[in-house]
Amino acid sequence: MKRLFEHRFVDRALAGASLVVTDRRWAAPLSAAALGFGIFAGVAIGPGAAGTLATGAQQIVEIPSSSEGDGQSGGGGGAAVPTESPAPQEGEAAGFEEAIPSSAPLAPEAVEPLPDAAPEPAPKPSRAGGGEEEPEEGEEAQKLAGTVVHANPAAGSYALAIKGGELVAVHTSELPDPGTKLSAPLRRLANGTFAEADDPTAEKAKASSVNFRGAVTYVSPDPAAPAYTVSGRGASLLVHVAPDPSGAVPELPAIGAYVAVTAAIETPAEPNAKPALVQSKVELEPGPPSTYLDLAGVVEEVLPDGHLLFSADDARESGAHLTLAVPASIDASKLKAGDSYLATATVEADGSLTLSGIAGDEHSKGADDPAGAQGDLAR
């Protein structure tokens, strides 16, 4: 079809320009002119002639520029670059076909923006007046009620005997008097004791005697001043025993025994004397003595021979101390003499004590510092 069309186009063009040659002298010039015209016509309609009807429409391809400017583009929009369409293949009617537009460049895939970093939560403010901190978000305060058995100014805490007589150590900035009946929302600290999460609610009437339970951790060797210490987590209370009127030495519970005590809260006649617990009744719990003890007190001294002197009660009321062997797993050089601590100890077969763990108990800040805990009290 294509070739037939080309031949007809040439024949018509040449027919109009044909001449009758009567003189042989014109033959050569006319032949050369015919040949030249044929070459011109062939080029005009040939498939390789750009800009004629034999070629397809020009395409303009736009090169997109980088919106960020990668240093390779000219900084503006993409340049328009003309390109030629491919030559029509055999069997196609060149020049009469509508140019087929090239396909548009594919848009780049959408990139999901990175999510903004979550803002750090603002620190919770402390209670007004610089008291105990509010419990952290998600941490529920536990409300407990009981009777204050004992105050420990050295650690800034008091021992609360809750229902059943269990002792709970509570840190606060204002210590209530022994015998005060109160309820308070409490939060647990790192060493296992508690701190007031809000102001407690106290009754006006005070108790003159209290009931509490715990393990015996010290027994006074002085028959003229019989006494023993009852301990729970965060509290070691000295219990005085009235001398027997007959002069007999009163029987005292052994170290490790678990006892239930009823004690009167008495204030000695001496000036500035603090209330003391005087035994009214004691009951031994069934079972063998415990060989693992909870202690609360003050580090008196770290001896060069690897022993630790620890006060026999948390307020140092007795003036006595316990001698604890310090194992290699505990670094006694980190302990500060005169500070309050919680400790655990193992009772050896010969009755001596070996330190198992120790943690700070110097007011609520020290009690809530897990970095200061060692041995089995470390978390």
Layout of helices and strands:
Elements: H1 2-16, H2 27-45, E1 59-62, E2 80-83, E3 142-152, E4 157-162, E5 167-171, E6 180-188, E7 194-196, E8 201-206, E9 209-219, E10 227-232, E11 235-240, E12 258-266, E13 276-284, E14 292-302, E15 307-311, E16 321-325, E17 340-347, E18 353-360, H3 363-367, E19 374-375
Parallel strand pairs: 5-7, 11-13, 16-18
Antiparallel strand pairs: 1-2, 3-4, 3-6, 4-5, 6-7, 6-8, 9-10, 9-12, 10-11, 12-13, 14-15, 14-17, 15-16, 17-18, 18-19
Order of helices and strands: HHEEEEEEEEEEEEEEEEEEHE
CATH architectural grouping of one domain:
Beta Barrel
Tally the beta strands: 19
Q: Let me know the CATH homologous superfamily of one domain.
A: Copper binding periplasmic protein CusF
Shape: elongated
Approximately how much beta-strand content do the residues carry?
25-35%
Largest sheet: 5 strands, mixed, barrel
**Structural class given helices, strands, pairing?**
mainly beta
What are the low-pLDDT stretches, counting only 5+ consecutive residues below 50? Answer: 1-7, 48-54, 65-105, 113-138
Helix percentage range: 10-25%
Number of helices: 3
Rg, please?
51 Å
